[in-house]
Amino acid sequence: MPSYPYRTTREDLRVPLPDGTGLCARLWRPVTDEPVPVVLEYSTDRLTDWTATDDARRHPWIAGHGHAAIRVDARGHGNSGGVPSSHDGLAADGAEVVRWLAARPWCSGRVGLLGTGAAGETALRLAALAPETVHAAVVVCPDGPHRLGGAVLAAGGHTRATDRIADAARPPDPRYVGDEWRAMWLARLDALEPPLADWLTADPPPAGPAAVPTLAVGGWSDPSAGAVLALAAGTAAVPVRAVLGPWPHGLPDEVLPEALRWYDHWLRDIDAGALDAPALRSWRTDHWCGDDPWPSPGVREVHYGLDGPLSTAGTASEDRWVHVRSPQHTGLDAGAHVPLGRPADQPPDQREEDGRSVSFDSRPLPEPLDLLGAPSLALRLNPGTGPALIAARLCAVAPDGTSTLLTRGVRALTAQADTTVEFAPTGATVPTGHRLRLALSCTYWPWIWPGPEPSGFALDPSRSTLTLPVRRPTPHGDDIIFRSPTLPLPPPLQLTEPLTAHPERLAVHDVGRREWRTELSPAADGTRTHPDGLVRTEQTVTAYRVLTATPLSARARTDRTVRLERPAAGWDTTVHTRTELRCDPTHLLAHTQIRAEEAGNVVFTKEWHHRIPR
Predict the structure, then answer these.
(1) Residue 240: which H helix or E strand, with range?
(2) Distances from the Cα of 449 to the Cαs of 10, 105, 307, 589, in angstroms?
(3) For residues 378 and 457, is the Cβ–Cβ distance under 8 A?
(4) What is the pLDDT of residues 157-202, one digit of tens each?
(5) Which of 393, 499, 487 is nearest to 440 (CA)?
(6) What does the alpha-carbon distance between residue 377 and residue 420 come to, in Å, rounded to a whole number?
(7) Most buried in the list 183, 306, 604, 608, measured by CB within 10 Å?
(8) Residue of 31, 154, 80 lying closest to 580 (CA atoms)
(9) Cα 479 to chain center, whole Å?
């Protein structure tokens, strides 16, 4: 164990809710006679197995620096009582946890929040419910919308829904809840509802401006980058600082010291320079830069017309309109929607994608072009354009032809003549001699569900403009340094990988059927033996398929199996879940299945069918 300013203790406890439900919690405290603030991480993940390794690294480190740190499982998850609650109920329970913690005799009355992904979005809502007690928050990669530009996300949507229902269906562990585990499990199973229909019917309203001083963290390649920038640019009456780095989804170790400075300032009144940082610190290809305020006055809009600064080939000179009609597997090289740090997560060379699109190229750049923010594309479309999907990619093309994806955006169209495509934010420097490439397609599978018709769209380049956020050259932020702290070693976890492991990402072209299939397998697959004797086995396979010229042939399916067992106690449970999605011209058709087994015997099974408007 590394040496920290405070020795620490750890205990497992239950946090009572007003209705008598007890939430499973694990608490690390510094050894001191003085009351201390507490940092709460409140999540639907399971603290006794799923997050145990990360918790055992981060929370003792936080406690060793003078803050109590607690992980709490939400109602109906892990070893907590009750059944899973609604989106609003999740935050309401969290607010009760905050009030309970603030009233502990060992607590100073100040609470900080920590949350990643869905827990980060929950933390923002929770802070708004209890701003008098919550004094600071650190949110990492907060969840974003399930629709982009009015189009429905295909990438990961059904997989996340399958994961959510499988995770909620996992039984409580008899080691922690005793003989009540079976009754708790059956009640939990009976209350399950797939989240996919609610997700896709309408996105929940955004959490709004930060209600308490907030440090927002994300990675440029993560879909949360826009939410992080929005927090930095919001109308909050409290300080907000944002960091966007070269990281995948999740909390980077390098950010922990910055999070500690944030908590020290707001929870312990220690001035460690937390507010001296600029509003936005961002990684810029090979260096850090700082911008204060954000949006930065050092970023200006530069406009590229599609009939001059950018130009395309292959359109007859007498035809005013450029026609875009793409094969349905355009998007095959999109990479992962939520990157987790694996090699296949990042988009590869985009030349094949460019070949399936209509591309507008600039001349070689005479000097580097520094992009910081969200580009946009204003298009003049043929008035006869009907319902369609526009997918736009911005790439940097090297002198050798290599095409590197910078950012992308989509827009679902009704019949209209003008539209704007908003891109995801980007932070990148395009070197001298490279060309900018705007690539347009009418499909982007398997990221986005294809439109009902393969006819595509036509645009007028003379009345269409790409707008880029260009940052003026400034000195590098050499004083911006993020270093990983020395964290305690977690308890040993024995991993047994499957003998027939699937590739991370496998693409298959069935030439005879004119079909493209993509199969994904996550890093979580395999068997893990925990130090307390729990054996956890997971297997997930996600598959997408589409016929080259038939948009309504698109199919997506995820199968997930989770087995939890304690061989010494004869306890053996398995949860099988499956979500299948297909589409018709107006709806997505979802079929969800769950089967739960104890010692190989089926104890619960259920199916759901949903018809979801596009």
Answers:
(1) strand 240-245
(2) 47, 53, 30, 12
(3) no
(4) 778 888 888 889 999 999 999 999 999 999 999 999 888 777 777 6
(5) 393
(6) 5
(7) 306
(8) 154
(9) 29
